[in-house]
Specification:
CATH class: Alpha Beta
Bound molecules: adenosine-5'-triphosphate, magnesium ion
CATH superfamily: P-loop containing nucleotide triphosphate hydrolases
Helix content: 40-55%
CATH topology: Rossmann fold
Order of helices and strands: HHEHEHHEHEHHEH
Largest sheet: 5 strands, parallel
Distance between the termini: 24 Å
Strand content: 5-15%
Number of helices: 9
Number of strands: 5
């Protein structure tokens, strides 16, 4: 059966379970609502957070929903969706996103990224929100690089909000002794769990409804 016939048969105006859902189309089950609230808190507090969950748990969707709720004129969001770019890629992404041209040598790229982050906050009055998705793939160098960036202040707060988003192995990885200094700075840890049976039924009905099918018995 072609997609078109499938759509016609069920009366779908769009395919259910699509990836391109607007924030208003999201289903607010418990773990989604909790994740959104906690990521929003993390952004507000300029804290370091770790959001984990199995593949497809709704982590990226929840982070996008939290970002949709912040004041865009007062925040600069830097989203890294694929961390396999090395520590240089991490720093370069930050510098470029803040309008700079990344320096070639790593030794000068680190202070450049730190300066760019500080300037964005103190001179432009915008809070930086760094989202590192698929963060279970971050290598040891990158985690250490992230710690260096969070170093410019003495308390538990990073000079920017940062949310590491990834599969459950991320949580264990950061707990390893080698990353103790970073682990200490984590102010929020939330793990998205699966849905309860009733939530699941409601979730499926919700997806069918936003796809245009409303006559579920
Ligand atoms: N709150 C929600 N309401 C409606 N649909 C949702 C919601 N959360 C997730 N989905 C659906 O589930 C799909 C997978 O969610 P998402 O991409 O956020 O998972 P993930 O946890 O980031 O997975 P991965 O580990 O593969 O990156 C989305 O494309 C969307 O269709
Ligand atoms: Mg994801």
């Amino acid at each position: 059966m072609t997609i078109d016939r499938l759509r016609a048969h069920w009366g779908f105006t769009r395919m259910p379970f699509a990836k391109d859902l607007a924030p208003s189309m999201l289903h607010s089950h418990r773990s989604h609502a909790e994740a959104v609230a906690r990521v929003a808190w993390c952004i507000d507090e300029q804290a370091l957070g770790v959001l984990t969950g199995e593949v497809g748990a709704g982590k990226t969707v929840a982070v996008r929903a939290a970002l949709a709720g912040i004041d865009a004129s007062r925040h600069t969001v830097i989203y890294l969706g694929n961390p396999s770019v090395g520590v240089r890629g991490l720093y370069s992404t930050i510098v470029s996103a803040l309008g700079g041209v990344p320096r070639f040598h790593r030794a000068s790229l680190i202070p450049q990224a730190q300066d760019a982050l500080a300037t964005e906050e103190h001179e432009r009055g915008r809070k930086v929100v760094l989202i590192l998705d698929e963060a279970h793939m971050l290598d040891a160098d990158q985690l250490e690089g992230l710690r260096l960036l969070t170093n410019s202040q003495m308390d538990n707060h990073a000079p920017f909000a940062c949310v590491l988003v990834g599969q459950p192995t991320l949580r264990r990885r950061i707990r390893l002794g080698a990353f103790a200094a970073l682990d200490q700075r984590v102010a929020l840890r939330y793990s998205m769990t699966g849905m309860e049976p009733a939530e699941t039924a409601d979730y499926v009905a919700h997806h069918l409804k936003i796809a245009g099918f409303s006559e579920l018995a």
